[in-house]
Write a structure and sequence with these properties.
UbiA_sf, 2 domains, flat
Length: 193
């Protein structure tokens, strides 16, 4: 374990994730999706101007790139592997790739078994994102957005949310029974789910 690699990995992943959120806010506002009833009213309430938000997005992506270069210098992983995951995945799909990127930066090699661990975590994250889309279904549809929640309707959204929330617990249970009891540890959060 390397504390500097851990810190640079956190900085890199958080910067890229924050930049993605900023870009999403900018695009939603420019397309007319955000309104006074939206949960993200950064631009609607004029807390920042669109130009300031765009500059913030560039700054955050640049900070993520500085973190990436630092990891290339510090990590035992091959630069090509880090670059593939960073530019090919972390910047576009945070869910599964962030766990793989973090593992690779620390360990220095790719282990696709890490994705098995990342899958349930990503499904829980997707449950949160889907819940937000289901809540905003009507306003998103009025703005011309197309989301899974809009396409499958309220009942389908409830079913999908339940699956995204509880399938990870089933996966961890199967892994715990077949491999190691440590996989059962996430089950302590089940009452709060």
């Amino acid at each position: 374990f390397s504390a500097p690699i851990f810190l640079w990995t956190c900085l890199t992943a958080l910067s890229v994730h924050a930049a993605g959120n900023v870009v999403n806010t900018y695009v939603d506002f420019m397309r007319g999706v955000d309104s006074q009833r939206s949960d993200d009213r950064t631009l609607v309430d004029r807390l920042l101007t669109p130009e300031e938000l765009a500059h913030l997005g560039v700054l955050l992506y640049a900070l993520g790139c500085v973190g990436f270069v630092s990891l290339v210098l510090l990590s035992p992983a091959k630069m090509e592997h880090l670059a593939l995951v960073y530019f090919g995945g972390l910047s576009s799909s945070f869910l599964y790739v962030s766990v793989l990127f973090s593992f690779m930066a620390q360990a220095g090699y790719v282990d696709l078994g890490v994705l098995l661990y990342a899958m349930p975590l990503a499904l829980n994250t997707e449950a949160i994102l889907h819940c937000n889309n289901a809540r905003d279904r009507e306003s998103d549809a009025r703005a011309g957005a197309v989301t899974v929640a809009i396409l499958i309707g309220p009942t389908g959204s409830h079913v999908l949310y339940a699956l995204l929330l509880f399938v990870p617990y089933m996966v961890f249970t199967v892994l715990g029974v077949h491999f190691s009891l440590w996989w059962l540890l996430p089950l302590i959060t089940l009452p709060q789910a």
